[in-house]
């Protein structure tokens, strides 16, 4: 069963190239995301590149790996979290005043059962965790906006 599409979007008063440079540099991910503490790519960032990540929620830390699934310069960056099969993406669209950015978490084939079980047991349940993820997306986009508009 497909999990709900989680999404947030923002308009940034900066050119697409500038916003893209912030988003496509994966070492910046901990600056944007309230949950991500590390995202390390193994090699040049392109489709197929794997990353090692560390996430945090309060005093709980957990590692994940992901694989870049799509990279269209100045348009789209997407990666699949291998532990749960979710695909996270950033899509950029030029506007009259800068850039429109949409961040999405997509689980077309559902989230892996073991991941759902873990979220229910350790992270307070799926509905609350998904709300927290959307709040985190909005925080991430606001932080990217602030950095791009500086």
TrEMBL record:
<protein>
    <submittedName>
        <fullName>Polyketide cyclase</fullName>
    </submittedName>
</protein>
<dbReference type="InterPro" id="IPR023393">
    <property type="entry name" value="START-like_dom_sf"/>
</dbReference>
<dbReference type="Pfam" id="PF10604">
    <property type="entry name" value="Polyketide_cyc2"/>
</dbReference>
<dbReference type="InterPro" id="IPR019587">
    <property type="entry name" value="Polyketide_cyclase/dehydratase"/>
</dbReference>
């Amino acid at each position: 069963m497909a999990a709900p599409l989680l999404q947030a979007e923002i308009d940034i008063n900066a050119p697409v190239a500038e916003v893209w440079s912030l988003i496509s540099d994966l070492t910046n991910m901990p600056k944007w995301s309230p949950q991500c503490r590390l995202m390390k790519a193994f090699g040049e960032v392109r489709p197929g590149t794997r990353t090692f990540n560390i996430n945090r929620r309060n005093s709980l830390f957990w590692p994940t790996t992901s694989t870049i699934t799509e990279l269209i310069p100045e348009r789209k960056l997407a990666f699949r979290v291998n532990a749960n099969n979710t695909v996270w993406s950033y899509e950029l669209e030029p506007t009259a005043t800068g850039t429109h950015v949409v961040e999405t978490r997509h689980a077309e084939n559902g989230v892996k059962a073991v991941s759902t079980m873990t979220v229910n047991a350790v992270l307070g349940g799926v509905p609350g965790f998904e709300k927290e993820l959307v709040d985190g997306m909005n925080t991430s986009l606001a932080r990217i906006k602030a950095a791009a508009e500086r």
